[in-house]
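User: Can you predict the 3D structure for this chain?
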Amino acid sequence: MRAGRESVIAKRREFGTGIIVHMRMNRTRTKPASARGRGGVPASAPRLRSAANRAEAVAFLLYGVAKGWREQLDRRLRPLGLTRAQWQALLFVSRMGGVLSQRELADALEIGAPATVALLDRMERDGLVARIAVPDDRRRKAVRLTAESRRLLTRIEATAGSLRQDILNGLTAREVRTLQTLLGKARKRIDALKA
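Assistant: Here is the predicted structure, written as structure tokens:
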């Protein structure tokens, strides 16, 4: 094939709009998310030829799965009147035994201290959490679940479990174990890079 006729395909994914842009020579066209093939990769995308391209595809898939999972859970939890930050905060506190320091919660939610204080002010006003002094340091505050938030957590957990089933329904038990193992390895590598 002549060099002038070879098509150079560059793809750019805009995360907010879910649009893939394909550029062929001087022509540009956009495809909506519905035109994508399996796994979020465009149906017309060239075969991945290098390890770098495969690694990039894995990164996009991980991002897309995590984002889509959160969005679906948000949609299903909307009837409870909770924002994403609120249900995530309740889940983090619950998984840490029902009490978590404000700083640890801010770190888990990946938000700053002022945003955490504002979030907890609203949640405390709505009866979802209570702030208590940390025994060894009266200047620090911990977040504790309330009876109301425990009732909500039962519904949150049931909804999250149902979504997990819906998402993983197409995978065998062996595939789920393999996926868990591989993602666990990737997570350990990320944690090692932080050190």
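The chain has six helices and six strands. The CA atoms of residues 124 and 130 lie 6 Å apart.
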